[in-house]
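Posting for a labmate who doesn't have an account.
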Amino acid sequence: MKKAKHILGLPIILLDTGEEIFDIKDILFSQKNKRLLGFLIDEGGWFKGAKIVLLKHVYTIGKDAVIIQNKKVIMSSTQIPDVEEVLEKKYTLFQLKVIDNEGNRVGRVEDVLFNEKTGHLHYLEVSEGVFEDIFYGRLRIPLSNNIKFEDKAIIITNKKQIKKIGGLKKYFNQDIEKREV
């Protein structure tokens, strides 16, 4: 699994020539299918569509670059209706509100973990605020049928799936437990 935010800004490199051609400007998510479609590499202009690379055309996603076979896999957004819809709606998961089915604010989406081969989204990383993130850690929410993706928010119907990851409190508690043994 990969974290989506780590990919933002990475260069696209051609496997056939080694040429670095674009940087990833944005990540394109399908709201209805809960999957990553591809990457925006050029926003286009008045008379041309945005340039994109679909995930299925990515050779590999590395720590420092995204590799594609050649320039032929770069497409115009106008060729793919699902992508064009995402761009027109300006839909992004990052900073989207997360609420529970009782109307309580859970936090905001900070990152998404996805399968780099299929694009399926597996987890949302949700922030409850800077202090909460540092001290207690972020929330990791597995994606399931209990989660609804709407235009302005993500709605969770089963809070039992939420887990805390990271945070200084957890680190210090582990350190204290080791000293007591």
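Reply:
Got it, the structure tokens are right above this. The two ends are 35 Å apart (CA to CA).
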